[in-house]
Write a structure and sequence with these properties.
This protein is mainly alpha-helical. Helix 1 packs antiparallel against helix 3. The longest helix is centred in the N-terminal third of the chain and has 28 residues. It is globular, with a radius of gyration of 19 Å.
């Protein structure tokens, strides 16, 4: 009866899809609460809202509302899921590494948690229970195989390196400029690890395989 032990049960496709559905809807509704507060207090916030990109307080607030409200609705519905998650990643990256730069970790951790969840959604997409699946996925088209050129060890190592870069950037160990550089270096570390494919490997002639 080994197959019934919890640690021996691999997740099925239907299980992964329903978990992604839960994650999309949950994080979408939670983020909407932040967006609605910003809409309600728009005129007062427009004078003092952080402007880390130098585009103006009102413009920064408007972009934040677009991400937190419009893109959260897109996540909940599962329409343009990856686009919405990428916009929210940008929003949370700015909040974590620019707006709260130099502040204590406790002021950054909520935005960091959102950022990690949105990264997962970018990788998995909307899943079967989404408008994206209905509109863009053709049942007649055979599922393509993924092309990878990285071993499991390399992928795990890249995740650990990316997390180390985050640790350095978030704990103000280095100057703000170097913290931003470390954060930027973490991005390719995470996403090449998630997809298992590194473009640089192709340039040096490392063989790819499919699964």
């Amino acid at each position: 009866m080994k197959e019934f032990w919890l640690w021996d049960l691999p997740a099925r496709e239907d299980q992964r899809s329903i978990v992604i559905f839960f994650l999309r809807v949950f994080i979408g509704f939670v983020m909407l609460t932040h967006g609605f507060v910003k809409i309600a207090d728009f005129y007062s916030l427009a004078r003092v809202f952080p402007d880390p990109l130098g585009i103006g307080h009102t413009a920064s607030l408007s972009l934040s509302i677009f991400a937190e409200v419009v893109c959260s609705f897109l996540l909940i519905s599962g329409f343009l899921t990856r686009f919405a998650a990428i916009v929210l990643i940008v929003n949370m990256t700015v909040a974590t590494f620019l707006a709260h730069m130099g502040q204590a970790f406790s002021t950054k951790e909520l935005a960091l948690l959102y950022l990690a969840i949105y990264m997962v959604i970018v990788v998995f997409g909307g899943g079967r229970h989404s408008i994206d699946w209905i509109v863009f996925t053709s049942k007649k088209t055979p599922k393509s195989k993924a092309v990878i050129n990285m071993s499991s060890f390399e992928r795990v190592l890249r995740v650990l390196i990316g997390l180390f870069f985050w640790f350095v950037a978030l704990n103000n160990i280095l100057s703000p400029v170097w913290s931003i550089i470390f954060m930027l270096f973490s991005i390719p570390m995470f996403f090449t690890a998630f997809w298992g494919y590194c473009p640089l490997y192709k340039m040096i002639g490392k063989n790819c395989h499919t699964y």
